[in-house]
Amino acid sequence: MSGDFLEAYKDCKTINSMSKGLYAFSGDPVTRGHRHVIERILKAHPDDELVIGIGVNPDKNYLFTLDERTDMACKYLSDLNVEVAAFEGMLTDYACENGFDVVYRGIRDEYDARDELNLFNVLRDQNSEFEMFFIPAHYEMTKISSSNAKAIAKEHGSIDSSVSSSVKEAIYGKYLSQYPIGLTGVSGAGKSYWAKEIKNKCNESGIPIHHIDLDVLGHQILEEATEDLYVKTRLKIIETFDVESSGGFVDRKALGAVVFDNPENMTRLNEIMYKPMMIKITRERYGADKKGLLLIDGALIAEFGWMNLSNNNTILVSTDEKTQESRLFNSGLDHEQIGRRKESQYTENLKREKLLDAISKDNNGTLWEIDNSFDSNPDIDGYFKDMIFKVDRWGELRFSGLWNRIGADGTPDEEYRRLVRAYSEPHRHYHTLDHIVSGLDELWGVRELLDKPDEVEFAWWFHDSVYKRQSNVNEIKSAEAASNLSRNVLLGEDFATDVKRLVLDTAHNKVPETFEGEVIADIDTLVFGTVPEIFDDYEFRIGKEYSWADPDEFKTKRSEILLKFLERSQIYYTDVFEDAYGAQARANLERVLVKLDV
What we know:
It is built from 27 helices and ten strands. By secondary structure, the chain is an alpha/beta fold.
């Protein structure tokens, strides 16, 4: 360690007690290494206030927006006694403005130490009272970094040791456009039936789906695969359990008889199969043609602890005992075989317990429990929508589905990425992709009420696609862009005309001419009817988007706009949204107008 670094470290150590500290980093994304540093700071200073600052380096190209990075850090660190805050500009200015006594910086190696020492001295030139503590990484954390996690994820490698489940879910969505959901259940519950129904729903909606059947992959390893790893795996299984069939393959029926009757044999088989199965699954997910919803289907997901494959988003298909035994008997099993099959797997309750434990431990995931007994009538549409709402956090599945459903020319990828870039522009604070996705959730809930639901959804995606500062024609430009694209991808003149009119309806300067126009206009202002905390955040973000305006003039014009909504007999054109949001919207608008006080 250099003499200069030691002197800087000693200089920082002159502060023996802090009341308020800032641990600042970019968090693109937050990693287990970041959390480890935070836990060590909290352990050393349990009574002090610690703020986690997610900042912006203008020289970096980020995978995630500042809001996304902040949200990920908030979720991952929610169980710790810290506050997470986003900031822009000079670190010293933010620290000085907010009264921080010291800033913490993590270092992984000597290269980090050199860079951080240089940063420390540069920042001290900005503020001579600025102090920094360096936190060297423990050895096991030195290989963990945001850049390494993203690089491994690009090749479909495992990043569970580097990031949390929720962060991994976000990285795989952003980089690979893959959104996995697990499917499991006891034998005879009807798991295969639900796999078929989910695939049918995806096909109806145009959403690309890839069914990864873990049982099929296992059979390939035991009976078909010729790669060296799988040949060695078969030889190990044959040597361990004496279950060889002709040609050096595994006799699956004999293997089943051995492992189903003996839990220790089942555990040993799992140990042998774990690595080849993980590689087989990774290879199955690999490739540009594997974008979309991944349905990872396996009866033993809970038993093997493979919930991480779907980031704990799992469907558990259940059934009553009478239905289960009837189905297994009809599949050709006798009562003795049924008993062994049931004993070899977790019970439904134990599966549920394991799945919920994983969700609780990782603070991420959703469990959908579906009763598939003979006398049940599960809401397939409702379950499917809820699953899509959960995993489709950036709307990519639904955009691809819309594109495919309406027969647009070409693939949706390029246009989706262009829209994401547009909605991620740095001057946007409310009119972002979050606004689009939240509106999609609402739109999907009322699709059956519309004569032209696809035109509305297409218009919704583009209604804020052009959002220039200090412009009065954003809606017009957005409408033109949407209608021109419609023509370019061969959707026809009628479709383009409808889309243009619907986008213009979101300008809120006239009463829409159609019910579809009323719906899209209402969805655009549903934020008025949210709980006060969300509405206040919306108002704050709108204010940031108009930070260029004279404050008094902004307050006046903002009041005029909001007052027009209050002067209506009902806030929303459609009864479905007025009934759900109208009263709260009126209360929020009245409250903010008092606050604006013009």
